[in-house]
Amino acid sequence: MVVGEFTESADLVVIGGGPGGYVAAIRAAQLGRQVTLVERGQLGGICLNVGCIPSKALITVADEVERSRTAASRGIAISEPTVRMEGVQRFKTSVVERLTSGVAELLKANGVTVIQAEARFVDPAHIRVVSEYESKKIAFESAIVATGSRPNTLSMLPVDQETVLDSTGLLALQRVPEHLVVVGGGYIGLELGTAFRKFGSRVTVVEALPTLLSGMSPSLVRVVERRLRELGVEVMVSTRVVKAEIAPGNVQLTVEGTEAARLQSEAVLVTVGRTPNTDSLNLEDAHIARDERGLVIVDQTLKTQNPRVAAIGDIVPGPMLAHKASYEGKVAAESLSGLPSAADATAVPAVIFTDPEMASVGMTEEQAREAGYQPLTGRFSFAANGRALSLDEPAGFAEVVADQDSGILLGLHAVGREASNLIAEGGLALEMGATLEDVALTIHAHPTLPEVWMEAAEVALGRPIHVAPRRRR
Q1: DSSP letters of 276-326?
Q2: Most C-beta atoms within 10 A of its C-beta, which of 186, 205, 244, 277?
């Protein structure tokens, strides 16, 4: 019940407390702004509560389960592991709670006022916030919109979080389904599908496009596809769900494409992309324009057509990534506070926690050629890296892409053990304008996985040490 409404003033308002919003609030507070953050759900947003962090907790446990199954090859005798999902969920929840409580403490320490309510614009300089008990208008000098995104849905597969689930529902599942069908072969579907395969589910992935992980380099994807086959994950590409019969604990799917089939499963995970949360904000009343996809139109400083308001994260063009949102949050806070800050998306890494992991930053060879460069590439296999072999993880490779004339690095890409950590060196190299020589001449500790970058750079330069030279005919 809402009782009455009154108006108060705020210096800078942040709408949304996810990895973009809370970072923006803290940076603005550091710059001396009086900041009010409005979040309708839990601090930390999708990423901390039902996305990035809990999914990686489950993936970590799943990897441990799988490694225990292969321990005999490393001289360790272990019986078949038993997965107790209640224990897995406790571990996941403990990780999430520790991080979300940390966000709350950081906001408090920086003097940010947090309101748990839903916000929408009234006009270019006011928002209305509505909670269970009150409604009030806030007049603001500046505002940052960071409302994130939500999973897309399919009309024939309505999500009930019991039998038909989105990623949030699957991450909270207290059972391991005997058969899990994943509709959508993007990164969320493959990450979670692989994890549940390791937990013991039979997994089938149904993807409408001709390939999995559309947008990633095909050479990286092929390594993951090979591993999916080894794990026994069934993959159906160029295939669509055309009919669904749903009952509690039982779904019958009719699929058509490269092959027609009828799939029966206990649970279906629907992962078919995400939609920006901009449709309920009354953006038009604030003179804020969106494009045909619902994304807010911003300039390089991340300001909208309303110069009082900036927008960041999943609701603006670019990849929907938590680290991009956090970076943009800092830029938006600075630009609205009068600093000469602007967004530069040259070195935004993309990381996918498949098995093995994939990571990419900058241009692929094909993109570099399309941009007018003469690309020079070098590739080095994890199978020739001492640390990868000692970890019993030889699958994958690292690749560098550079401009042939100048040697300046244009992109770095990896698929293999800990690619998610390795890509940080690639991002730093691009940010600093490093060359192949810079990476090749940097002494990398041995034996470590990051040596693959040094080796790949040496391959590109034509002087590899740990790659046999081509035989002359």
Answers
A1: ES-TTS-GGGGT--B-TTSPBP--TT-B-SSTTEEE-GGGSSS---HHHHH
A2: 205
pLDDT of residue 174: 95
Look at residue 136 and give its three-state secondary structure.
strand
pLDDT of residue 258: 78
Over the stretch 352-371, which tens digit does the pLDDT of each residue have? 999 999 999 999 999 999 99
Whether residue 134 sits in one domain with residue 196: no
pTM (whole model) above 0.85: yes
Q: Is 466 a catalytic residue?
A: no
- In this prediction, residue 1 carries a pLDDT of 44
- The ranges of the chain with pLDDT < 70 are 1-5, 471-473
To the question of whether residue 80 is assigned a binding role by annotation, the answer is: no
Whether residue 422 is found in the same domain as residue 435:
yes
> Is 191 known as a binding-site position?
yes
Tell me the C-alpha to C-alpha distance, in Å, between residue 31 and each of 111, 289, 307, 349. 12, 28, 19, 27
Domain end among 272, 303, 323: 272
User: Does 351 fall in a domain?
Assistant: no
What does the alpha-carbon distance between residue 385 and residue 74 come to, in Å, rounded to a whole number?
Answer: 18
323 has binding-site annotation? yes
Number of H helices, E strands in the chain: 13, 22
Q: How many domains does the chain have?
A: 3
Could you say which of 126, 413, 446, 466 is catalytic? 446
Query: Can you read off the two tokens belonging to residue 38?
Result: 């409005």
Q: CA-CA distance, 418 to 425, in Å (whole number)?
A: 12
The residues that bridge with 129 in the sheet, in sequence order, are: 119, 136
Q: What is the DSSP string of 60-124?
A: HHHHHHHHHHTGGGGT---PPP---HHHHHHHHHHHHHHHHHHHHHHHHHTT-EEEESEEEEEET
Structure tokens at 110: 């920086």
Q: How are beta strands 113-116 and 375-381 bridged, if at all?
A: unpaired
Render pLDDT for 395-448 as a digit per residue (tens, 0 to 9). Answer: 999 999 999 999 999 999 999 999 999 999 999 999 999 999 999 999 999 999
The residue segments making up the domain with residue 84 are 5-150+276-336
| Residue 377, annotated as binding a ligand | no
